[in-house]
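Dear colleagues,

As part of the handover before I leave the project, I'm documenting each prediction I ran so the next person doesn't have to rerun anything. This entry is a single chain, and its sequence is reproduced below.
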Amino acid sequence: MPQCATCSHHVSEQFQRVFSDATGDVYACPNCSANAGIGEATQERSAGQSE
């Protein structure tokens, strides 16, 4: 089952398809991010992981 790389909370496969990076990693989920900001948090956190 997919999980958030930030908080290890499980997410659905559909959530992973929508919000994951190119490698399938999810860096923000409803458990650790405000719902309205998940897309922005995903971009910021995934950019930080590649540095």
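The longest helix spans residues 38-49. The mean pLDDT is 85.

All the best with the project,
I.
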